[in-house]
Amino acid sequence: MGFFLEYGPTIDGSTQTSIMDFSKSLTLWIACLCLLRESWRVQASSDHHHVDNGVSAKHNSFHGDDQFISVEDLWNTWKGSKVYNWTVDDVVLWLTHVELPQYVDAFRKMHFNGTIMPRLAVKNATLTVSILKMLDRSHVQKLQLKALDTVLFGAPLMNTHNHLKDFMLVVSIVIGIGGCWFAYIQNRYSKDHMKKMMTDLDGLQRAEQSLHDLQKKLQIAQEEHRTVEVEKVNLEQKLRDEINCAKQEAQRLKELREGTENELSRQKYAEEELDQVLDCTTLGRGRCG
């Protein structure tokens, strides 16, 4: 089964019908391989030349005259595989690994080693029911699929301790814990920052409201100032008009006073002349008497 080792990870075919069909065909192939091997061993005791020709003909009919790999190569590869060389303890460990530990005693009783794996991979009611007492069909199918998987793709990893995986797991846990702690710190910081921002936003809203009220007050004060300015201009104009009127009245009174003074001067001068005339008249009368 050398070319089977070229496949990578183990395939679990318990949930895929395509794997079931593939396992049936491979089961038939393994059975044919065992039969051909037995027939080849029997014929090896007879005429060597006749046996070689007969086995070659059977091999050609089995694998389609493949020029690169033969049934003997497959058989030799299988005999050299790790699974073929398993001990009874290895088979029991594998049986526990595939979650069928209830049949460990039967396997130990029959001394099943790695060479039994191809027979477990084929459908064999005598082996599974009569010898191993496996009455659950799901257990039988699981045993066949796991055995087929082991024969095809090699031994699974069982009870292997990988320090690199442990280290990576520890690193992953540390990173996860660190990430959770960082997320918690960030969440807490975000909440505090959000709370502070909401407080600042409320303060800003109050300041904006205060500014709006001040703008209204300023607008009212400006309107009052404009009203006062208009009233001041009107009052100044009224005062100027009254001052002009008062000046005109003063000028008129001044002119009137000057006219009165002139009239009084003329009257005084007239009185003086009259007194002189009276004095002359009195004096003339005295002279005449």
Question: Would you kindly provide a written description of the structure presented here, covering whatever features stand out?
Answer:
- This protein has helices at 17-44, 48-63, 71-79, 88-97, 104-110, 117-121, 125-131, 137-153, 163-288.
- It has 289 residues and is mainly α.
- It has 2 domains: 2-160, DNA polymerase, domain 1 (Orthogonal Bundle), CATH 1.10.150; 167-289.
- The radius of gyration is 66 Å and the shape is rod-shaped.
User: β content, as a range?
Assistant: under 5%
- Residues in helices, as a percent range: over 70%
Shape: rod-shaped
Task: Determine the structural class based on helices, strands and strand pairing.
Answer: mainly alpha
SSE inventory with pairings:
Layout: H1 17-44, H2 48-63, H3 71-79, H4 88-97, H5 104-110, H6 117-121, H7 125-131, H8 137-153, H9 163-288
Helix pairs in contact: 1-2
